[in-house]
């Protein structure tokens, strides 16, 4: 397929976006006086901004492009995941946010040492850091890979524009800079989804009515054959279970989201953040699926516009570059960059928070706030550089399968991490040794299920989480608790 010329005006729009993001980082750099500023923003973030940040953080560029492709080629069943994420929020409000706010944590995994011991804290923190370095590489690589066939920008330049500039503004602005750039990026993502949908509808004969009626005729919403139970297929009940545990992991055990709970000045503002996120999640992803439906209608009416043997996974950037006016196309591509950078910058700052809190400050002599700030910035650069180097290697060697397998194995730690927090908060009798046994059993069970069964991968989170809780509960009487009973009561339900 012939690569489309990106055009001068599109370049101007993209460069303008990148310049604004860099200026935000420069502006907030002057406020970064201590580790508390760098990792908690000194509690200065309003709830609505933290909420937009959570939304932008959890929506990567891969999601931005893959959801329309999913709706174009298949159906809307994955939309259920967005509403599962909303449904768990009351549970998070009641049982998790008070813990994180009361303990005034920098790293979410500090709680695991207070409740259990340092082994649990290190397991969770190191798992998180390794997974997110891999996540940075994968997001950068797949974004470059998705855009390569459609724009005349060198893939290594795409990696530089996404990764290196992200390192720079995260290094300078800390979590405050990250959140306010997330606000810009979240607005761009939302606006781009609505804009694309409206523009496609204007180009479809019959307009919006034809878009939705054609999808209904083709049974592309929630097909009846997806309603049944299955152990191996991604049917709706399986998706509901999978998204429940993945959302639980994200909102209760993942530093990049949990960190947003402590950047506001009160519990009320923190809850406002999650309400804002819920409103966005309830509305904006529907437009991503609607874009896929609109693209399906458009190219059904105009099949000659698609190249022969076209890979429909790139249907969104193909339409943007080939059909949208100059300038508007640049804005949409900038939104794809924004989706990448919002996820990567959050990963960078949360990795540095985990290292500074769980390793650097935890061991050795007591560290000053200035030393923690310096180390946090150094780790931001190191983690970002590792991600950029890894994504560059993947582009040059085309060996994505090996990295995907590695990233998948690290991702299996999400279930055990979620289980540890559930065990600590809800199972009073659990202790450090029973928790350790639960984690070992969960990792072993999840790896065995992955290697030896055909169980759908959406069940992996449930297997990991529930194994930790069940084994941790049953094994507790076998060990003498190394915490005083009153300490455990203070840190559990």
Structure notes:
- The chain is mainly alpha-helical and 493 residues long.
- It has 2 domains: 8-403, Sodium/glucose cotransporter; 412-493, no CATH class.
- It has 22 helices and no strands.
- It has helices at 8-29, 35-40, 47-58, 61-73, 80-87, 89-95, 97-103, 110-115, 118-147, 155-203, 207-217, 236-252, 255-258, 267-301, 315-323, 328-360, 369-397, 400-411, 414-426, 432-452, 460-475, 485-491.
What are the SSEs and their pairings?
Layout: H1 8-29, H2 35-40, H3 47-58, H4 61-73, H5 80-87, H6 89-95, H7 97-103, H8 110-115, H9 118-147, H10 155-203, H11 207-217, H12 236-252, H13 255-258, H14 267-301, H15 315-323, H16 328-360, H17 369-397, H18 400-411, H19 414-426, H20 432-452, H21 460-475, H22 485-491
Helix pairs in contact: 1-10, 1-16, 3-10, 3-14, 3-16, 4-14, 4-16, 5-12, 5-14, 9-10, 9-16, 9-17, 9-18, 10-14, 10-16, 10-17, 11-14, 12-19, 12-21, 15-16, 16-17, 19-20, 19-21, 20-21
């Amino acid at each position: 397929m012939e690569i489309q010329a990106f055009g001068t005006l599109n370049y101007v729009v993209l460069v303008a976006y990148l310049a604004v993001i860099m200026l935000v980082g420069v502006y907030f750099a002057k406020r970064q006086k201590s580790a508390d500023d760098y990792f908690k923003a000194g509690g200065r973030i309003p709830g609505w901004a933290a909420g937009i940040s959570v939304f932008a953080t959890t929506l990567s560029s891969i999601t931005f492009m893959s959801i329309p492709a999913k709706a174009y080629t298949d159906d809307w069943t994955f939309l259920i995941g967005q509403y599962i994420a909303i449904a768990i929020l009351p549970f998070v409000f009641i049982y998790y946010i008070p813990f994180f706010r009361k303990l005034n944590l920098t790293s979410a995994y500090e709680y695991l040492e207070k409740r259990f011991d340092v082994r649990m804290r290190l397991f969770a923190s190191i798992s998180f850091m390794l997974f997110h370095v891999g996540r940075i590489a994968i997001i950068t690589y797949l974004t470059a890979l998705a855009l390569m066939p459609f724009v005349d920008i060198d893939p290594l330049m795409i990696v530089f524009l996404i990764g290196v500039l992200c390192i720079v503004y995260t290094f300078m602005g800390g979590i405050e800079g990250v959140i306010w750039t997330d606000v810009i990026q979240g607005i761009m993502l939302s606006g781009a989804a609505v804009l694309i949908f409206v523009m496609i509808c204007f180009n479809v004969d019959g307009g919006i009515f034809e878009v939705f009626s054609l999808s209904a005729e083709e049974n592309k919403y929630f097909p009846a054959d997806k309603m049944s139970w299955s152990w191996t297929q991604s049917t709706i009940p399986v998706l509901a279970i999978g998204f429940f545990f993945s959302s639980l992991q994200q909102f209760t055990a993942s530093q990049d989201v949990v960190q947003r709970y402590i950047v506001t000045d009160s519990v009320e503002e923190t809850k406002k953040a999650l309400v804002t996120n819920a409103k966005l999640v309830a509305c904006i992803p529907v437009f991503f699926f609607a874009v896929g439906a609109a693209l399906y209608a458009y190219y059904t009416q105009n099949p000659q516009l698609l190249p022969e043997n076209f890979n429909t996974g790139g249907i969104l950037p193909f339409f943007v570059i080939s059909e949208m006016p100059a300038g508007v196309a640049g804005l949409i591509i900038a939104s794809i960059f924004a989706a990448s950078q919002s996820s990567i910058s959050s990963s960078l700052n949360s990795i540095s928070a985990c290292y500074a809190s769980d390793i650097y400050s935890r061991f050795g002599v007591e560290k000053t706030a200035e030393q923690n700030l310096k180390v946090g910035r150094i780790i931001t650069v190191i983690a970002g550089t590792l991600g950029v180097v890894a994504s560059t290697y993947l582009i040059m060697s085309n060996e994505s399968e090996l990295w995907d397998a590695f990233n998948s194995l690290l991702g299996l730690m999400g279930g055990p991490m979620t289980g540890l927090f559930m065990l600590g908060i809800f199972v009073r009798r659990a202790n450090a040794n029973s928790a350790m046994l639960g984690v070992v059993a969960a990792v072993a069970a999840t790896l065995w299920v992955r290697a030896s069964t055909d169980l759908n991968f959406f069940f992996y989170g449930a297997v990991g989480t529930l194994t930790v809780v069940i084994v941790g509960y049953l094994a507790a009487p076998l060990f003498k608790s190394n915490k005083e009973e009153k300490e455990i009561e203070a840190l559990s339900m």
